[in-house]
Amino acid sequence: xxxEAPRRVKRAWVIPPIxxxxxxxxxxxxxxxxxxxxxxxxxxxxSIKGPGVDEEPLGIFSIDKFSGKVFLNAMxxxxxxxxxxxxxxxLDLGGVTLEDPTDLEIIVVDQxxxxxxxxxxxxxxxxxxxxxxxxxxxTVDATDADDPxxxxxxxxxxxxxxxxxGMFSINATTGEICTARPGLDRETMGVxxxxxxxxxxxxxxxxxxxxxxxxxxxxxxxxPEFTKEEFSMEVEExxxxxxxxxxxxxxxxxxxxxxxxxxxxxxxxxPEGAFAxxxxxxxxxxxxxxxxxxxxxxxxxxxxxxxxxxERPLKPSxxxxxxxxxxxxxxxxxxxxxxxxxxxxxxxxxxxxxPPGTAITTYTASDPDTxxxxxxxxxxxxxxxxxxxxxxxxxxVRTKRELLHPSAFxxxxxxxxxxxxxxxAEPPLSAxxxxxxxxxxxxxxxxxxQPPAGVLCGRPGxxxxxxxxxxxxxxxxxxxxxxxxxxxxxxxxARNWSIARFNGExxxxxxxxxxxxxxxxxxxxxxxxxxxxxxxxLPEGPYSLPLLLRDSGTPPREQQQLLNVSVDMRDNILNYDxxxxxxxxxxxxxxxxxxxxxxxxxxxxxxxxxxAPLSSGTPLAPRKLPSSPxxxxxxxxxxxEAADSDPSVPPYDTALIYDYEGSGSVASxxxxxxxxxxxxxxxxxxxxxxxxRFRRLADLYx
Length: 702
Hints:
Blueprint: E1 18-21, E2 29-33, E3 44-49, E4 61-63, E5 69-72, E6 83-92, E7 102-109, E8 117-118, E9 122-128, E10 136-139, E11 142-143, E12 156-161, E13 168-170, E14 176-179, E15 191-199, E16 207-217, E17 225-226, E18 230-236, E19 242-247, E20 249-250, E21 262-268, E22 275-279, E23 286-290, E24 301-310, E25 324-333, E26 346-351, E27 359-362, E28 377-382, E29 388-390, E30 396-399, E31 414-422, E32 430-440, E33 448-449, E34 453-456, E35 465-471, E36 482-486, E37 497-501, E38 514-515, E39 528-534, E40 541-550, E41 558-567, E42 572-573, E43 589-590, H1 591-595, H2 632-645, H3 695-701
Parallel strand pairs: 1-7, 9-16, 18-25, 26-32, 34-41
Antiparallel strand pairs: 2-5, 3-6, 4-5, 6-7, 8-11, 10-14, 12-15, 13-14, 15-16, 17-20, 19-23, 21-24, 22-23, 24-25, 27-30, 28-31, 29-30, 31-32, 33-35, 35-39, 36-38, 36-40, 37-39, 40-41, 42-43
């Protein structure tokens, strides 16, 4: 059997990839020649299509249609296109396809035509001062547009410049910058400017540079210090709440940071706490001020020891140093000061009734300006009652008029006046002192019996008592309690009379004769009481008892006074022709008043009555008593006529009303007994039911 020989592959039409360097400058440049063995040379038409030919970018490649040579017509840039894929065609002269289209791949070979580029021109980092070596601060990085698979894009980093200290290093591969040695001090150098470089070809190719700025962050490693050891200031005396001056300090730490803020302390020289020192938040200096008024005459200069330190404590890494101290000398300037009343208010006591012109006190002020010669003068600033006069030079206060109780100008027994003291400086200064004068009560009044007369029954134990009272114009403690007693000059009075204290509850008390009581300013005088009692039955008539009354003042005042007492054996004339409640509810005549009209007549000469004849007068002697009940009417009429003619007779002869039947009786009414005109109209059988006591009535009327 005849076998068919294997078919030969046409290698000329299979085109391998073609490499061409970017930036090739010899143009046009032959890249490759393609062939088809289907026809004799000159019988094939060649063409190519694709990007760079008939697609963007146009015109980069071309082909000779008769020879099949492919040419490069422009420089290539690998960073724009790193390869081109074209299609090649072969046709006969009549346009019939001789070969299937084949691929033509053109690879652009990279050249180191791009420098590295840093991502930013300036890199910024921060690190605290005193950081340990190896402390990473920041990372710088760059890019390269060349082929990353070649050394054209293999970058290496380095520090070109950072100063002589060489405090930082950089990782050549990663670009990380770290501290290289100790000794970073913000106060020595606060900012480091590094020039860093990136180079391709592993450091041997193209290069580029950037800036790396490193700021050192402050820590409190420096204490504040005074700019000098001594400061001098001045302040006026009596000034308070004012600034005296400043003490200046310097701190190497960052201004305005917490490590920079200072605080000040006054250590010595101000035991009274007259000064204070605070920190000026803007300048960090100490501001000294006065918080208590200073007195030049007491102390004219101060020497203060002041310390300063930071608000925050120093870092342990800070070098040890003593606390900063400074001496501040303050001179107190003398100024005119107002007079001072050392005793304000001045309280004194003056007896009431003190005569005019009496010196009661000397009220003067003192001048604090002992280093200046000045004269003080005085004047009354307030004297509402015009009671006082004041010596303008000596300050002696005298009475101008008597100071008496009571007065509208007294407040609780005190009189208030104001005294003005003035110096003769320019301008003059003054002070006001208060003079409080207590007007002391003087026991200048003895108690007065009130009332001076009375009436009592002459039988012991049966109304034979009389309530006595007294008044005293003096204020406590010169008034009550009062002491009542029978005159010691008449001891015989004690046989028939006694005086006992009254306990204020309407009953006589036991023991002594003192009665507690008090008076209040501007109120009626206090009235206290005692009880006069008869010890034996006395005949009726007038009695004059000498009594001795004594108050409780210091010293006490006493006075003997007469008490006019009328002993009254009362007899009543009753009218029994009425149907009232009996003796208790009748307006009865007091026969005693008719028998002894002279007992009820005032001792002074009475005025004449205008409604009586001028010839009429008061009887000079008691009238004769009626000898029998039938003479009583004449006796009463005579007394009535005499009373009408005599204005001195008390009004006991007032017309009385006798038709009042009283308020009733506790017994049952007996009107049923007389409710009819004849006995036959009344049934009295019920009397037999009232018991043995009414049996006689039952027999008479039953």
